[in-house]
Protein 1
Amino acid sequence: MSASGTPLRMRVARIDALTAAIRRLHLVAANGAPLPAFEAGAHIGVHVPLGERTQRRAYSLVNAAASSQDPTFNPDHYEIAVLLEPASSGGSRWMHALRPGDEVDIDAPRNDFPLAPGARRHLLIAGGIGITPILAMARALGAAGETYALHYAARDAISMAYHDEVGALGDATRWFDGGDPRHGMPLAETIGRPEPGAHLYVCGPGGLITATLAAARALGWPDDALHSERFAAAPTAAGGAEAAESAPFEVRLAASDRVLVVPPGTSILDVMIEAGLDPLYDCKRGDCGVCTTQLLEGEADHRDICLTGDDHARGAFCPCVSRAKSARLVLDL
């Protein structure tokens, strides 16, 4: 949201077809005002009307080339790319139905996937639509004169969004597997042994992220040098067997001082939505980290797959899937 806590009203200024299933949208302020600045890795929350409620869908911002160098940088537009997912809840279909001139509400940029400050080298790995924050990172690093390498995987060139833009970068490799991951990016060779000050970032389908992080850890990379953001859901849904076996517990939202009761089989996020709140989220399966908040009190039962053990130790908490071991949690919401 904006500094005043209200959504930003945006107008669709331009739409491009990047692939048969991916559209690029340029959003400008409907009132012509300057837009809030952002850094590579940031996303916006688009307010999407689905059913009786307006829900938020998170989309990474692509046009972040100058923001890491100039703290006063204010973009004249936000660029996002949206993959049409026919099996989803309908958010991507709604986004694909937009036309130039249509207006939407968004929350101001938020960054849960930032570049590591002080890193000496950056290894960027993307798959599919996961190129959006990764391309922003590469552009920002290139503009700042920092060392990086980018590896981008897709089925083939025709389904690769930003194919030409990635090819124009100084140190980028495009990998095509023809639909068989065994013929794609050689992860161990691509990642290599850890080096002092090196950080790895990966975004894309869950399978790529899981394989990349596993390969990096097997090569000796420490968790605090590994960063990920997911754009695909894990195969198990939130609120499954584990959630159904959980006991009810209370959650106090510190900012509003509201107390909610979370029953078995229902997530904290869904209880907040039912209570008329409007939390930011995307996957609802603990994959993406968009809903991450801070645990202030209580003992958590962490069930996400996007946060590291160090993140959990620092209090990071995903209310879309994680629950309580204690009778009460206090969240910074």
Protein 2
Amino acid sequence: MESIKVVVIFGTRPEAIKMAPLVKELEKNPQIQCVVCVTAQHRELLDQVLELFNIVPQYDLNIMKSKQSLTGITCSVLEGLEEIFESEKPDIVLVHGDTTTTFAASLAAFYRKIPVGHVEAGLRTHNKFFPYPEEINRKLTGALADLHFAPTTTSKENLLREGVDESSIFVTGNTVIDAMKYTIKEKYIFENNELNAINYKNKKVIIVTAHRRENWGSGIENICNALKIVVCENKDVEVLYLVHPNPVVKDMVSSILKGVDRIHLLSPIDTGEIHNLMKKCYLVMTDSGGIQEEAPHLGKPVLVLRDVTERVEAQHAGTVKLVGTDVGEIVSNANKLLRNSEAYNHMSRSINPYGDGNASAKIVDSLLKYFKIY
């Protein structure tokens, strides 16, 4: 073959952040025709990333609806991609990670007998309900994929244990590290003036994100109550809680934390904003997956507000620590990092296991070799 057509599909902000540098790398290669399709499983949050990286999709399914269900997302993606695949006839479809868009797009490609490349393949918690539905999404995508771009050797080993042919697995690092080469700026000025007003030099700023389905209800409630205690016991702390717009999360967070001194409830910010905010902060507390990879790259310790994590490499490296959603555990671990410089330095200076920022180039090189384009 002299050239290939690659359709890249994503639908949420986390996917977009990690696929954007890969899109840029694909577009640079004259032997690759890159076609971008977004499902807009998330709308506004996705658009922020597209604008930041100057990516204009050729296709936009625009499936997001109020109170959308997992079944509805799956059906909309399957139906929307059928016509696109018939028109484009791609040589391969690339998907990312563990969203419902990822699984449904892989299934749609399988139905058309189109090869699937899975970026960020092989992450596992080995519990199908944690995180939900992401663990099953990535396992099902792995079963459908022809090429597996694993971020680490641990991810590769997970795939090998599941019977995946070793010749189809490529260890590349994680593309999110690539993305940070585009987003981190010296002397960055935030679009949100409330962020510019924070005293990052004299305050210990904690960034918080928590919105996972398995934390809805008592999990989010516990996290919020723990934050109240942390700021009460540490007068030099400011908390910046980036509150997910889902009413299930937003309403509970607001009911507990609105008006609490030194806790700022903020709307989600775009990728450039959050990467530069992480660079300035002291500590991150999150139930997100991607932040467990991003913050350690900037030397920021991460307390993971979940009982299990698929980013076990970060645990082993010492850059993140699982604390769950127990109030006492959150408070004691936060206080330790806020008050014990040795404990803080141990986490902040550990080596990030997610690569050197060249994952996208390695993926492109693997595609060219797979299709025997030299």
Protein 3
Amino acid sequence: MGMSYVIDAVRTPRGRGKAGKGALSGIHPQELLAQVLNTLQQRQGFEPREVDDVMAGCVSQVGEQGANLARSAVLAAGWPHEVSAVSLNRFCASGLQAVHFGAMGVASGAMDLVIAGGVESMSRVPMGSDGGGQDGNNTHLRERVFQVPQGISADLIATLEGFSREELDAVALRSQRNAARAIQEGRFAKSLFPVKDPRTGTVVLERDEVPRPNTTAEGLAALEPAFTALGGTVVGPKGETLDQLALAAYPRAKAIRHLHTAGNSSGIVDGAAAVTLASERYVREKGLKPRARIRAMATIGSEPVLMLTAPAPASQKALRMAGMTARDIDLWEINEAFAGVVLQTIRTLGIDPERVNVNGGSIALGHPLGATGAMLLGTALDELERSDKQTALITLCVSGGQGIATLIERL
């Protein structure tokens, strides 16, 4: 096997993901991804026809995000018809999974140049728009395992781990403060580009729209738990509530403590991102200077009710593949789907919290489902270069009980 090199990474700003309310809500998701593709091409000067494939993650593949969004984005970008493209879905890991597939292609020698990333317009195609729920509405599957919504799983994790509301809010406050510092110091500037209206050329958004730099511990503490009412919803075949179904799988919890709020959970946003990946052969022939190489990639499954605990074992799997330990990693990007996920991963792996999400995360910046993984990789790479560090590990939890991890090394 050869090496997979990261040549560049870019992203849009994250726009508020409410219909008609956010700056990106007027931009079709195909156009968001198309602008990412053209920005990469303009920065690097490659010939689009040299791209072997465009791979894009997207979670809600219905409506405007259906019909192979990636292929439509290639056409919207004005790239040659010969450039192929594929859309994929591994829920919140979709953008990073696209990077994995692209890296596999170039490392194997089957491909030389791949653009991989993802997009999600949560304002135009809200979560759940495909109608599939957690399990595709398969009643036979529900007889074997009844999967609860992620918010219930997050609160169950917090209950089992004994996390307090104050600990969860502290993660959120740190995310907001770190993001505010990163924005003030221009730490995102290298990867960020302004999104324009494709018809008028007018800039519609040039910086992340959702961070709340004035967030306080008192303000976070005043927020009501987000999933209490959801947990009391009756959905079971024998009249069980969602909380009761979760507790049936984890009776030692005794009672679920609903601790996650809108303030310590990820924000709903629009956005797109991508990474340029190249083979050793392409790098040598073109005289390129890669920014990083991918040392290891891993995915893993986990118990589907608790669901969100797989970042730790996925990271351990990637570390084993690279012959490394958690202590060897300079920077960690642990997706802040919920504060409890970050704390559980840190505790399980014994990570120094000061190495985690140093420029904020999805609690402050938002989580555009299909794009987040690629965004986190770009953020990690930029910070490795800024702080003159070498290694970073990016990991996300995944709906239905999965995890993903990518280990990169700066060159």
Protein 4
Amino acid sequence: MRTEPVPVAVLISGGGSNMAALIEAARAPDCPYRVALALSNRPDARGLERARALGVNAEAIDHRPFGKDREAHEREIDGRLRAHGVEVVALAGYMRVLTPWLCERWSGRMLNIHPSLLPRHPGLDTHARAIAAGDAEAGCTVHLVTAGVDEGPILAQSRVPILAGDTAEALAARVLEAEHSLYPSALAAFVSRLSDQG
């Protein structure tokens, strides 16, 4: 059983609020992971500055020069992850559909958080879809990443009631709060199990 925290990379495309929650949680002395790298496909992602302000190395590999060659972009990402000694990858608002190559490369070691109670409402516009469907509750799901979008094994969920008169924006804000609590605890539990196996 290892005693050193597991090095994690967080992949982002935007503001990085879930990334910040993971970084803040990692400051606890008993946290089993540390955020070794924040990585974005967008050099202008606001989350990169946020990560640096929190003392985490932050880098970008712009997807645009690679055109439609997603795997070539992901090979660059993979190389950067390995250069930083990363052992687990946490997707946090990373808005790129991954190729089977990267999913296989990090199989069993890549997590994502999705703003619905999977398997309900995979993909985008989850909050509006949950309200339109007449669901009594929404929430968020942490799952392992597989080649199918939002289809990997579920690790943890948090439920958020849908209130009368809810808008997608109001529901999204409450679900995001739940995400900030769920993701750090789910990631910590996941890496603890990995450490026990390793």
